[in-house]
Amino acid sequence: MSQPTALYDLPGPRTRRRHRLYGVVSTAVIVALAGWVLHLLFDTHQFTATKWAPFTYQGIQELLLRGLGNTLRAFGYAAVLSLALGAVLAAGRLSDHRAVRLPATVLVEFFRAMPVLVMIFFIFVALKVQALPALVAGLTLYNGSVLAEVFRAGVNSVEPGQREAAYALGMRKTQVMTYVLAPQAVRAMLPTIISQLVVALKDTSLGYLITYEEFLHAGKLIASNLDYDLPFIPVVMVISPIYIGMCMLLSWFANWMARRQRRNPRTEAVGVAPADPGTLLPRGQ
Q1: How far is residue 3 CA from its own chain's centroid?
Q2: What's residue 209's pLDDT?
Q3: What is the 3-state secondary structure of the chain?
Q4: In this structure, what are the phi and psi dihedrals at residue 190, rounded to the nearest 5 degrees?
Q5: What whole-number distance in Å separates Cα of residue 204 and Cα of residue 116?
Q6: Would you call 276 exposed, middle or buried from its count of C-beta atoms within 10 A (0-12, 13-18, 19+)?
Q7: Which pTM does this prediction carry?
Q8: Residue predicted with more confidence, 172 or 145
Q9: φ and ψ at residue 239, rounded to 5 degrees
């Protein structure tokens, strides 16, 4: 018989059969959609040798590799700066001083509400900044403000008793944050942090709008110089799996970090030996 848990009751036989039916139907729908897309691609002759031969040219391969390198460069800068900015803004929002907390709150809410493309264009056009710094600055301001809320929510999600116990031991607020709250919050925040970094990676494609020679810009240059019908489709079929692969690599890295933290002796639960019956004292002693 299924045993209830703390959060939900385990599904019974009917529910399991219903879930299997949902899985079969969903799989059939996905397979049908994939078959329909493949039929359209074959019907428009997208897999002919003529349309794929240009990707064997060394010049096109070098252009794609250079664009991929520029994409990873922009993402690397934006990721590091976003994490740093998010930590600073989160510390400001968690401050007990109103003079620090209020400006940090205004900055977070403002940059979270602004579209990324508008910030990139403003920095590139109005401030006359080069393409790479403009792209990195726009991504940093937006993703840093979002990560600031992630950090703040993660710290606040730690059980209040942890904070109170640390203060009772005489620790200062900086020590409580560094040694007690932050290590526990990181474990809860890690999936959301990686998800936001995936967003930053995908948003690097906005760089082609300001003539930054990133991966999508390289694909656009290739497609605009091909002399057959629908040249963008083969280019998309080359670029899309690489973007998907990079995002999956980030997800794998997040899972690897989570497994490593679970194996860390500082965070792993310590086993307690069962109590043995001690020597009983005679009655009256």
Answers
A1: 35
A2: 87
A3: CCCECCCCECCCHHHHHHHHHHHHHHHHHHHHHHHHHHHHHHHCCCCCHHHHHHHHCHHHHHHHHHHHHHHHHHHHHHHHHHHHHHHHHHHHHCCCCHHHHHHHHHHHHHHHHCCHHHHHHHHHHHCCCCHHHHHHHHHHHHHHHHHHHHHHHHHHHCCHHHHHHHHHCCCCHHHHHHHHHHHHHHHHHHHHHHHHHHHHHHHHHHHHHHCCCCHHHHHHHHHHCCCCCCCHHHHHHHHHHHHHHHHHHHHHHHHHHHHHHHHCCCCCCCCCCCCCCCCCCCCCC
A4: -55, -45
A5: 10
A6: exposed
A7: 0.78
A8: 145
A9: -75, -40
Q: Residue 270 and residue 199: Cα distance in Å, rounded?
A: 37
Q: Locate tokens 């069962």: which residue?
A: 274
Q: Let me know how long the chain is.
A: 285
The tens digit of pLDDT for each residue in 245-283 reads 988 888 888 778 777 766 655 545 445 455 555 555 455
Convert 98-121 to b/e letters by CB count within 10 Å (16 or more is b): eeeeeebeebbeebeeeebeebbb
- pLDDT of res. 2: 46
| In the block, residue with structure tokens 């020597």 | 279
pLDDT tens per residue across span 145-165: 999 999 998 888 888 888 888
Specify the amino acid at residue 148. A
Q: Which two tokens stand for residue 132?
A: 């790479």
Residue pair 210/65 in contact by the 8 Å Cβ criterion: no
Written as six digits, the tokens of 79 are 């990721």
